[in-house]
Design goal:
CATH architecture of the largest domain: Sandwich
Bound molecules: calcium ion
CATH topology of the largest domain: Immunoglobulin-like
Radius of gyration: 59 Å
Shape: rod-shaped
Strand order of the largest sheet: 6-5-4-1-7
Length: 503
């Protein structure tokens, strides 16, 4: 038992001794193991002893496996090239994983990322190729991969600091963000060179072709793209607002793409705003006129006065000069010229004959007749109603149903062609409305007063007036007649009342 324990102790001691030995030699670059190239470039040689026969080069950060060491050279195999050879061990650093007993004092960038130059706005940071070593207080170096990388903003041009952090230590390196490699911009096409006051810059028709210096395809931007692309800057007289209304005078317009060196400058002429044309917005409701009166009705006609800067102003036709030679108008279409502020336009108006669509009694004339009288049309006015909406007095109409053989209310018809209109007239014994003692055709309180004065003996009526004063036709003039006349005068009774039935 004692022997066995002794052997165990010996074995343990030997194991520890081997481990300690291994740990001691691992720091020296003279033994087999994994190494990383520590110099910018070193050669792999076919023969370590002759120091000759170049096979290939390996570069900083390349990781190689040294399988044998002879004369300060390590035998390596370059996997990526399927080549093997010998490398000066002085150019290599041992790489081993783990050093739990040491303290990391700093980080070391063994190999920078492959990509160290970026184009602004187009490329994002790429850490491929970055090899970071943790340096321990015993000077051991161990590659770490679980570091934290603080990437810089790549949206502006310049040197950008990248920070690698691991635990409490960190290291930085820089990458470069460069401008988009634009060789030049070429302006193509043509655009307006004259604008009107109040307009905004519009270079429709103009294109910008961007030529790059890195061989990438050219890009072409039309005006709409230019206006809406934030990579373009448009300056009007030095101010960065392309939507500002232009002012009269020579105006400088600068367009640049991404950088001010890619600029193109224009000078445009801005002229004062002035009316340019007159446009019909809506036509007249009635696009014809009648041959009889040749009068234009332009109701509904609305015009726009268009300025050279695109501004519109609504103009009523009443403010316009209407040029229409009514006397020489012809049946059918006639051109009517409309002028306003040195601008003019025209509309077509058809001349046609108005059509009669009815008749109306404009003025009945005499409506109370004495019994047996003949029709008196002297004051009767009959009008034709036309499709033009107009009414014109017509003659040649006929009266039907006129009968004064009896007293009373009569309906009389006036006929004209196929049209007719009826009206009422009255036949009385006196030829006047009862009560109208002053014989003026109307019943007023004055008539009623005169009748009353007669009834009470203050006045004496005679002749026709005496007949008319008897409004209720009872053959005597009393206060009742005065009262009835007053009722009619104030509208309580109609002008004509048939009292024959009450007798
Ligand atoms: Ca009267
Ligand atoms: Ca009476």
């Amino acid at each position: 038992m004692k022997n066995k324990r002794f052997i165990k102790c010996i074995l343990l001691f030997l194991s520890l001794a081997i481990l300690a030995f291994s740990a001691a030699v691992i720091a020296y670059a003279d033994t087999v193991g994994t190494y990383v190239v520590a110099v910018p470039q070193t050669d792999v040689l076919a023969d370590a002893e002759t120091d000759a026969d170049f096979v290939c080069a390996i570069y900083k950060g390349d990781v190689v496996e040294v399988t044998e060491v002879r004369l300060g050279y390590g035998k390596v195999h370059v996997n990526s090239l399927s080549l093997g050879g010998w490398v000066n061990m002085d150019d290599l650093q041992p790489m081993h994983s783990g050093n739990e007993n040491g303290r990391i004092v700093r980080l070391e960038i063994l190999s920078m990322p492959e990509k160290q130059t970026y184009i602004v706005g187009e490329e994002t940071f790429d850490s491929t190729g970055l090899v970071v070593l943790a340096v321990y207080d015993n000077n051991d170096r161990v590659e770490i991969r679980d570091y934290i990388l603080y990437e810089p903003s790549m949206h502006t041009v310049g040197e950008k600091k990248v920070t690698v952090s691991y635990g409490s230590v960190s290291e930085t390196f820089t990458v470069t963000v460069t401008e988009v490699p634009i060789e030049r911009i070429v302006i193509e096409g043509s655009a307006k060179t004259q604008f009107a006051e109040g307009q905004t810059i519009d270079f429709t028709g103009l294109c910008v072709r961007v030529v790059y210096s890195d061989g990438r395809p050219e890009r072409v931007f039309a005006w709409e793209d230019i206006k809406n692309n934030s990579d373009f800057v448009i300056r009007i007289n030095g101010k960065e607002n392309s939507d500002v209304p232009l002012q009269v005078g020579s105006t400088t317009v600068d367009i640049y793409y991404m950088y001010e060196k890619n600029a193109q400058s224009y000078t445009v002429d801005v002229v004062p705003a002035r009316p340019q044309s007159l446009q019909v917005v809506s036509l007249p409701d009635r696009q014809y006129f009648f041959s009889d009166n040749r009068t234009l009705d332009l109701t509904g006609l609305v015009l726009n006065l268009i300025y050279n800067n695109g501004k519109k102003e609504t103009v009523g036709y009443r403010d316009c000069e209407i040029i229409f030679d009514a006397k020489n108008a012809v049946p059918g279409e006639n051109e009517i010229v409309i002028r306003y502020k040195d601008c003019q336009t025209s509309i077509m108006m058809e001349m046609r004959d108005a059509e009669l669509v009815g008749i109306e009694l404009t003025q009945p004339g005499r409506i109370v007749y004495i019994k047996g009288a003949l029709f008196d049309g002297n004051d009767t006015v009959v009008s034709g109603v036309y499709d033009s909406g107009e009414r014109f007095e017509i003659s040649g109409w006929e009266v039907h149903g006129f009968d004064t053989s009896t007293c009373g209310k009569k309906t009389v018809e006036i006929r004209y062609g196929e049209y007719s209109v009826s009206f009422t007239l009255y036949v009385t014994v006196s030829g006047y409305f009862g009560g109208d003692v002053n014989l003026d055709g109307a019943l007023t309180p004055a008539d009623a007063r005169t009748i009353l004065r007669h009834a009470v003996g203050l006045e004496k009526l005679s002749g026709t007036a005496a007949v008319v004063a008897d409004r209720d036709e009872d053959e005597q003039i009393t206060t009742a007649d005065a009262r009835l006349a007053l009722r009619a005068a104030v509208g309580l009774d109609p002008l004509y009342m048939d009292f024959s039935k009450t007798k």
